[in-house]
Amino acid sequence: MMAGPAGDGQWAAATPALAALRVHRVYARRWVFLLVVSLLSCSNATLWLSFAPVADTIAQHFLLSTDQVNWLSLVYLVVSIPSGMVAIWVLDSVGLRWATILCAWLNFAGSVLRTLPYMILEIQDPFAFLMGGQSLCALAQTLVIFSPAKLAALWFPEHQRATANMIGTMANPLGILVANVLSPALVQKEEDIPIMLVRNKAYVILAVCFGGGIGIFSSFSALLEQVLCVNGYSNEFAGLCGALFIVFGILGALLLGLYVDRTKHFTEAIKIGFCLTSVVCVAFALVSQLRGQNIALAAICSLFGLFGFSVAPVAMELAVECSFPVGEGAAAGLVFVLGQAEGVLIMVLLTALTVRRTEPSSSTCRSAQDTLDWKVSMLLMAGLSTLFSCCLVLFFHTPYRRLQAEAGTSPSVQEHQCPAAADLTPPQQTPPEALPKHSLGPDAAGNPGAAHSQSFS
Q: Could you give the CA distance from residue 141 to residue 44 in angstroms, rounded to a whole number?
């Protein structure tokens, strides 16, 4: 319908108001929400095809037919047809928030149900639990696949919608990639199936805690100058603190690496290192908010690197030890990838929690950051560091599986070293009963080198 002159005037007057309504007020936490949806989509896709790349091993271990294993993947497609219509209604009527929460719980419940055939040994029909878990995850699939477009429309301005939609949508094929790469790497024989189902408690705890440590260190390195300049410290001093952080970190990693190579005290070293790092992180959170503390801040940054960087190679070794016989690349690489993901989340949280200063500023920053207050963000970083340390100290316990396997197949270096006193006695004058237990000679039954099979613990 065409409007007359009066109508045209009313429309012209209403245009600014309509334009104002269409302006998005954006929040920094929109990126956190996007990250959550992306991780849900990635994990859901990984759960979908985690069985497919190792179908023969799964069929042999659970006594299933090939068709049954195929149905563990096909159920996603079948369930998505009716659940897709429900997902549309949930997103448009109930809302994005509740759809995301429901998706997360379905993903979690399906993952747990899939692990029950290994956690409860008396289960007679493992296929029912595997199929039930996959069905719950399939119900979550449509919710998470339909979410990126809704999320982009509600949380992002017009010039960022396509980017946000792309990130959320591409997380799903990324999960498929993870499944195709990790499942064959983790499951090389039947005994490795519990690792694919994430039953290895020690590895999960180490991956989450050390991954969080990687995230904290990445955020610290990236935000150091912004935190210090607000309180009057120069860029040159911030650069010096960053350099001390790296130099002392390399020194600490070298010293601790030599120590654990000799003692094999991997667990003790990483727990003590994490605790000391948390103490220094708390000190930085407090001192960085004060002015004129150059010497204290330089010392704190040096200790932060010394204690924090030194545990990195030890953690990578522990990841291999507690997940053996999984390949070293998969065991260490997954920890690093998780650390990068946690780093993104932590950095977004730290920047989102900054507030505008109300007190007079002595900032040396050369941008709009001179009015930001990082106090809450730094306290959050210290709190996260303390939380990861407590979880690691209290809950992380593991045997050194790779060392035990190597000890059972090859003698230790120490067993080749005879006592100095034995070198002073000619072999022909040494009575048989006086030979040391690590002797390479035959045992009483005539088996050569039998006594030599003892190994270090």
A: 6
Q: HSE, CB side, 13 Å, CA atoms: give it for residue 153.
A: 9
Give me the amino acid identity at 408.
G
In terms of Cβ atoms closer than 10 Å to its own Cβ (0-12, 13-18, 19+), residue 388 is: buried
Per-residue pLDDT tens over the stretch 14-69: 444 444 445 557 777 788 888 888 888 888 888 887 777 777 777 777 788 878 88
d(CA 17, CA 11): 10
DSSP letter (8 states) at residue 450? G
Does 325 sit behind a cis peptide bond, omega within 30 degrees of 0 on the bond before it?
yes
pLDDT value for 21: 44
Distance CA(330)–CA(47), nearest Å, equals 17
How many Å apart are CA 71 and CA 132, to the nearest integer?
Answer: 11
Please compute, for residue 391, the number of CA atoms within 13 A of its CA located in the half-sphere on the CB side: 19
Q: Are 285 and 219 in contact (CB under 8 A)?
A: no
Q: Which residues contact 110 (CB under 8 A, 6 or more apart)?
A: 47, 132, 133, 134, 135, 136, 137, 138, 140
Going by the DSSP 8-state scheme, the letter that residue 353 receives in this structure is: T
Q: List, as own/partner pairs, every contact residues 96-99 make where C-beta atoms lie below 8 angstroms and the sequence separation is at least 24, other chains included.
A: 96/147, 96/150, 96/151, 96/154, 99/143, 99/147, 99/150
Q: What are the distances in angstroms from CA 40 to CA 8, 34, 108?
A: 49, 10, 10
Residue ranges of alpha helices (H) inside 23-65 are 30-49, 55-62
Residues 34-71 as b or e (16 or more Cβ within 10 Å = b): bbbbbbbbbbbbbbbbbbbbbbebbbebbebeeebbeb
Supply the pTM of this predicted model.
Answer: 0.56
Measure CA of the first residue to CA of the last residue in the chain; give whole Å: 88
Calpha distance 403→191 (Å, rounded): 18
Q: How confident is the model at residue 383 (pLDDT cuts 50, 70, 90)?
A: very high
Of 307, 308, 285, 286, residue with least CA distance to 218: 308
